């Protein structure tokens, strides 16, 4: 496909989703609201990178950050409706990976 024939919206979507860790963060949040430390430990990403990705996703309207005024303060991240709309895509990627990627070739 010629670069000039790409839809700008598709190109923007691929730019957002292709950032390292972004797909895994979205996939993790499909199961419901998560605290920062739960996301960090489940996908083994550094805190700095996770913080950057969550901020980017929040700016894009894909992730919502909710602060609970408790002691200590509790912060949870969840998908917005825009983020939840990615679920069918993530499920298809999961199906594709199960069918086409060999376990012993993963690293």
From TrEMBL:
Organism listed in the record: Priestia veravalensis
Domain (HTH hxlR-type): residue spans on this chain: 7-105
Keyword vocabulary terms for this entry: DNA-binding, Transcription, Transcription regulation
Pfam families per record: HxlR
Protein name, per record: HxlR family transcriptional regulator
Xref: InterPro entries: ArsR-like_HTH, HTH_HxlR, WH-like_DNA-bd_sf, WH_DNA-bd_sf
Molecular function (Gene Ontology), one example: DNA binding
Gene3D superfamilies, alphabetized: Winged helix-like DNA-binding domain superfamily/Winged helix DNA-binding domain
PANTHER family, sorted: TRANSCRIPTIONAL REGULATOR, MARR FAMILY (PTHR33204:SF1)
């Amino acid at each position: 496909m010629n670069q000039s024939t790409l839809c700008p919206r598709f190109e923007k979507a691929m730019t957002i989703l292709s950032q390292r860790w972004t797909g895994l963060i979205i996939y993790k949040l499909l199961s419901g609201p998560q605290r920062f430390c739960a996301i960090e430990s489940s996908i083994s990403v550094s805190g700095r990178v996770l913080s950057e990705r969550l901020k980017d996703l929040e700016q894009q309207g894909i992730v919502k950050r909710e602060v609970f005024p408790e002691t200590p303060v509790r912060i949870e991240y969840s998908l917005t409706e825009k983020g939840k709309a990615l679920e069918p895509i993530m499920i298809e990627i999961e199906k594709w990976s199960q069918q086409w990627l060999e376990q012993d070739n993963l690293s």
